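=== Structure Prediction Worksheet ===
Name of assembly: unnamed complex
Input type: mixed (protein and possibly other molecules)
Chain count: two
Listed entries:
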Amino acid sequence: KAGVTQTPRYLIKTRGQQVTLSCSPISGHRSVSWYQQTPGQGLQFLFEYFSETQRNKGNFPGRFSGRQFSNSRSEMNVSTLELGDSALYLCASSSATGGSNEQFFGPGTRLTVL
Amino acid sequence: AQKITQTQPGMFVQEKEAVTLDCTYDTSDPSYGLFWYKQPSSGEMIFLIYQGSYDQQNATEGRYSLNFQKARKSANLVISASQLGDSAMYFCAMRLNRDDKIIFGKGTRLHILP
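=== Predicted Assembly ===
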């Protein structure tokens, strides 16, 4: 079974631009979560989608948005990029929500904003 | 507010020794799950072990065990017989079963010395 895939793996953008990151979950998984990882703030929860609906959202500004498609693939969009958005963006999928359902993480997309 | 605290930013341990990574958490919710993840330098998050708040016994997975002390709100990870490949960043995380949001600690960087 293929793992979680994220594209692209690396991205360089300039301030003010927008970016879209993609995440393909493990086949059969319906829950996709996104996290931002920075040296200063650590791992922070962005949002979670389940069956095309956003179930949870972290404390990020409205410039961060996402969506999930009927095949469970998810995209995350950041508009009007700021230098502080430079981070590793991790996507995780699980078969369901809650309990001991393990989240399987992808390799991440490393975004650099210049 | 929910919080995960990992007080050891870095640790150095001799190969083959056992190591304990500390984790304390704060929540008033009765139903939650605790996770440990390993993040090698490649960036991918690897699930290690899970403990549910209602589980009576400490979780074990091979060389990993979780020392769960509910009254003290601690969930320390114990790695027995450490190996060079255990060198990585380790994150403790908590998920509240009512909203599935996962909160991560700042992590502990473990270095195994030959």
